[in-house]
Amino acid sequence: MLAWAGSAEKHVKHKHWTNDFDRLFRKYTKHYFGPHIDWHWFKAQGIAESGLNPKARSPVGAVGIMQIMPSTYRDIRKKNPMLKNIGEPRWNIAAAIYYDRQLYRKWRKKGDLNTGDRLQFTFGSYNAGHGRMLKAFSRARKKLGKVKHWKQVAPFAPGETRGYVARISRLVEAAP
User: Fold this and answer.
1) Is the distance from CB of 150 to CB of 117 less than 8 angstroms?
2) How far apart are CA 108 and CA 43, in angstroms?
3) Helix, strand, or coil here: 55?
4) How far apart are CA 115 and CA 154, in angstroms?
5) Are 133 and 125 in contact (CB under 8 A)?
6) pLDDT tens digits for range 42-87
7) What angle do CA 123, 73, 82 make, to 5 degrees?
8) Residue 57 forms beta bridges with which residues?
9) Which of 27, 69, 119, 159 is the most buried (most CB within 10 A)?
10) CA pair distance 124, 110, nearest whole angstrom
């Protein structure tokens, strides 16, 4: 099974780790997170969301590379009016990374989580909603006591969210 997983990751790396949109992921990661966060995390999120397809539309209405819901985009635009068309890769990526930053800051309040774990909680919140992830965090804390790592909370998160966060992590490991 490990051999298959490794070959699958090479396929993912080969297919999606192109230079497409790198400039945008670098720019907006640096703008919203600073130079200390690796931009590959957010490109991996875009790969997990849409395969970097700017024309992607989900059955529930999520739009673009980062699969942002139009209602979420409107909320983001209230704070960032310079963001224009949700369907343009530039604004779609910028809005998603801005939103990730807001979620990342919320997880800072949960104690001494390291950067990688906070990013995983951020992506879990992006996928399932921050409220659902807070409930999962609370359930993990009730059962385990102190919670410092995503892997402690993952069993309490929705299955789709566990897979989503795991896929982003695997993609980052496969990054060039």
Assistant:
1) yes
2) 22
3) coil
4) 16
5) yes
6) 999 999 999 999 999 999 999 999 999 999 999 999 999 999 999 9
7) 115
8) 63
9) 119
10) 15
